[in-house]
Amino acid sequence: MEKYNPNKVILVTGGSGQIGIDLKAISKDKEINFLFPSSSELDLSKNSLIADYCNKVHPDLIINLGAYTNVDNAEVEKEKALLVNHSAVKELGNFCFDNKIGIIHFSTDYVFGNSKGPHKANDIKSPINHYGLSKNYSEDDLIKINPNSLIVRLASVFSDKGENFVKTISNLILDNKQINVVSDQKISLTYAGDVATIIMLLIHFYFLKNNFKFLNSNFIHFTNNGYTDWFSVAKLIQSEIKNSKDNNQSTLSNILSKDWDSKAKRPLDSRLYVDNNWFKSKGMVIPRWETRVKKVVSSILLNSKKEF
After folding, report:
1. Spatial separation of the C-alpha atoms in residues 203 and 53, rounded to whole Å
2. Structure confidence by residue, pLDDT tens digits, 246-264
3. Measuring CA to CA, which residue among 95, 75, 91, 94 is closest to residue 83?
4. Cβ-count burial of 260 within 10 angstroms (0-12 exposed, 13-18 middle, 19+ buried)?
5. Beta strands in the chain (DSSP E)
6. I need a labelling partner for 117 at 20 to 30 A (CA). Which of 34, 42, 46, 255 fits?
């Protein structure tokens, strides 16, 4: 593989999240200098301070993992969601443009509305909740501000860290709860550890030319292979847990999304189309979602045993 000068500084916002934690772990033995500022060092809700921090650390590339991700609360805290998901991204984009560097910004399947998936990168967007709207704004403005930008759309990120569907359902099943799970939403799933791997790949190709022209696009979709729905994911989790704990008394019931009490509307089909051939050409075969869910459940089970 072609080499580049590794003496680079990469600023990673949102490093305390699921993806950031995994990226921090796999980047430890790399020659590149990664910066993972805490939220007190770089608070994306304080837009006026973003450029000051960036000027202090002089990054060669910015990876924006920072986001307001609570979909339901975004319907209530609309201004805060816009500050972090839109205004902060514009500030980062302006800094990158002024300093002639690139930015990798992470977005969401929720920029698509009730149109039928799987959605390709250039499909028409029509978000139906405020979280999706705030991310949609950031996509549109970032491309206008800095053409040397890459937007990576993910869907339903999960791991054994942070707050996510797989971890929440696993813990409810371990607690023998009766659980209602929506069954009529078609989704993609994304394992945080695989996103961290993809980030390292994108960094490599970016620094070969200091641009994203190797993609021929400012957008890319990344999720694990295969499509599913929330109820099917919950059933797989329950099966894995019951194989380990045969006395588990949890029960699952499938319900329709219209019967789920939620502040925010969710698309009925937010599946993302992923160009597997492109990733294979760069040396990565993307695992299926089932494999990664099992991996996370196994980790959660192991940690639950340590607590007793």
Report:
1. 22
2. 899 999 999 999 999 999 9
3. 91
4. middle
5. 9-13, 33-35, 61-64, 102-108, 149-154, 157-158, 178-182, 186-187, 190-191, 219-221, 228-229, 251-255
6. 255
